Amino acid sequence: MLLTPSHVAELRMSLCGKLLLPGEGGYDIARKLWNGAFDHKPALIARCVNAEDVARAVEFAHASGVVLSVRGGGHSFSGQSGCDGGLMIDLSEMRDLRVDQAARKAHVSAGALLGEIDRAAQAVSLVTSTGTVSHTGAAGLTLGGGFGRLARKFGLTCDNLAAAELVTADGKRIRASAHENPELLWGLRGGGGNFGVVTSFEYQLYPMPRNMIGGVLVFPFNEPRKLLRSFADFAATASDDFFAMVDIVPTPEGHRVIAIEVCHCGSRAEAERELTALRKIGTAVQDSLGSAPYTELQTRIDKDYPAGRGYYLKSGLIQEISNGLIDRVVDHLEAAPAPRCLASFIQLGGAISRVNQSATAYWHRSAGHSVLLAGFWDQPSDADTPRLWVKTGWKHLEPLTDGFYVNLMAEDDDEQRIRNTYGANYERLAALKRKYDPANLFRRNANVRPAEG
């Protein structure tokens, strides 16, 4: 369908929210994504305020054939929550959030950010498993799986998704739960945005005190192999209450350090026992471990991932932090020390691994960690060096990985990587895709193509 001013005017009149076109007030703010590596310019931005708006926008995209992207928190590393010349559905104004303390459930609209969920739940001493950066959107995190500081204790975010309401490719509003469209709920638990635009989520909550033990241990980069091997040995036997991210990062002075960011959600006595053992892996030059509100721990690294900065990364899942992997990471860091690049290990396992691989769309349950290389820049002219550093190093690391976390997808990750990530669940996802989105309208994501037939 050829878009005409009358079609655009009709869509505008049908929305309770705003429809923004290039040159109109608010357009340039609304189109911006968190990852400054992308500068997408949609032809239309539907700033939806309710599910009816989402349905009207989806119907318009379906009828017109325009490219469709869906923006929740806008944190897509691959930039796919934006588009050029198409329609962006912007959910950022849909921020309703209600905690049912008695039922231990949180009802969350699709534009909510993780920090908002954390604060609302912790106000009544409850939590759910979310991510690690509080300004991340809940929608994308959940649909891609979602791991963070409590995932080893309570499972992935998607494991705690009890129900969802969404708009499918034909503009219909439906609900997915254990009793209504259960196969669709299975697909939403890790299958990404392939099946529609989720407008609200219902999460399981758990009792949890407001203070936990956490902070950062910083070690010099003088014996990195020894330190990382010691950490790997410690992590292999850590309790489900323990979570850590290991970042090998440059300091402002140009040196490298190994920073281990920790959250322990168990008793103080158990935390002290495990953290005493952790401290013995090396001599820290900084130790900020101590009691802190969980909501504070959840914002601890927010400042390291500001909106507007450019990011490029490659990641993969690993069973363990092997000596061979450590050597390849350190070799690359020492051979090509780029000033705005980092390597990370994110701890998985625990409760994540005790869910059957076929119980949700998220397949790689046995992975013990995610490993990644990332580069960042503030000016577009500075992007080439960190991008090349990541690509060069990843050629050596990728053979040691199996699948990847789709929320850390890069813009150049191909279809085969996505198939590998979903493993034996891929064909089931493809059949579900054929049922709910046979024309692949929702394709700006870790895309699952509809099954043939």
Q: How would you portray this structure in words?
A:
Strand 5 and strand 6 form a beta hairpin. The protein has 453 residues and is of the alpha+beta class. The model has no long low-confidence stretch (mean pLDDT 97). The chain has helices spanning 5-14, 27-30, 51-64, 114-122, 138-143, 151-154, 182-188, 224-236, 268-279, 294-297, 323-335, 384-397, 415-422, 426-436; strands at residues 18-20, 44-47, 68-71, 87-90, 97-100, 105-109, 126-127, 161-167, 173-177, 197-204, 206-207, 211-220, 242-250, 256-264, 286-287, 290-293, 310-318, 341-347, 369-377. The strands form four sheets. Strands 12, 13, 14, 15, 16, 17, 18 and 19 form an eight-stranded antiparallel beta sheet that branches. A five-stranded antiparallel beta sheet has the order 5-6-10-8-9. The protein has a four-stranded mixed beta sheet with strand order 1-2-4-3, with helices on one face. It is globular. The chain has 14 helices and 19 strands.
Provide the helix percentage.
Answer: 25-40%
Poorly predicted segments: none
How far the N terminus sits from the C terminus, by CA atoms, comes to 26 Å
The value of Rg in angstroms is 22 Å
Largest sheet: 8 strands, antiparallel
Total of helices: 14
| Beta content | 15-25%
Helix vs. strand class: alpha+beta
Number of strands: 19
The shape, in one word, is: globular
| Residue-averaged pLDDT | 97
